[in-house]
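Exercise: predict the structure of this protein bound to iron/sulfur cluster.
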Amino acid sequence: MSEEYSPEISQDLRERANYVRYAFFEDIDQNLLRIENKFIENGLNVLWAPDESSLCSHIFNLLPKKSHNKVCFDVDRIPDELSADPSLVKVCTPLSVANRETEAETLVVNADFAVAEDGSLLFADRPSKNCFNLVNNVIVIVNIDQILVNCSDISLIMKLKSKSQSYFPADVKVLSKSFTKIVADNFATSESVGFREDPVNVSVILYENGISDILQDISLRESLYCIHCGRCMEVCPVAKSSTSISPIQIIKNNCLDQYNKTLSIFSQTTLCGMCQEVCPVMIPLTELLVYEMGFVNNNSSKFKDKKIFSIFSKRSMLNKMNSSFFRFFWTKALYGKNKNLYTYFKNNKSTFYNLENEDIIDKDSDSSLDTNGIF
Ligand code: SF4
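Solution:
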């Protein structure tokens, strides 16, 4: 396990967190209705966005001016549509706004979580934490898989999301309604105080973004339990050596139509199982990767010929033959073009695979080690 996450997470905590996530998805329709009602009760403007284009049009409509809007973005990815035309939207960074180098009218920020029980919005260690008091409008994007059912779930999930030794984010903001900001009053008189309160409007966009597609596949549903703690990426040898994509992103990307269930999944994982070991909400990441490989394998003549999935499925045998000789050939065949990853596996002394559930693996595959077309 990575040293950065040295505090061990007990199995009890992991099971509780898994149940918290399960409870939301088990009754997702009711929970979404509940949170929408709570937002409205709290006086927030609520919108739904099924996809990115709808998200962009909502944001455009919520901006105060028709053009020259200065917008501070604290989101996972700024959609191209929003950043393409600087005459419509001038993108500002949270740092420049917080340091008062730029004045922004609007902050667009992802909530880390929202809570269905009372409609509160949670922001943990966001780069924009010092910007809330500096804008007139806050647009909060809530991904619909990042919702908790009860307020009592917050501390557990925040604890597990935190990467710090102290086991809790340094800054957690909880927002449940529009608020006022305190600003200097330039027209203060000797009778009035030197500041005034200005209203800040808060709008919430509930963002679906392909989540329904994943929900429809019962096997992949658990991938939505992710709380974006980053642990799986920290321990993933492929992510460390070659890509900036995490195991959970590989799984989700392959679920979504626009990525077309890519063949590259075979070179994006070694099925070492370390991601699954560290996941605090017990997502069966390795099983899900194997499941998706099976899907790609069944739909790709290229990979049927090469039987890479079949090779992966024979991990027990590979482990038994875990000699440097086999390691050399196996690693060279799959990761020969990536020097870092190749070196990592050549030097690694532990077993390649540690999946416990044998049943999910390709049962029809030949029991002998078939290396035709690979080595
Ligand atoms: S899938 Fe990865 S990022 Fe998501 S909760 Fe598990 S370890 Fe954290």
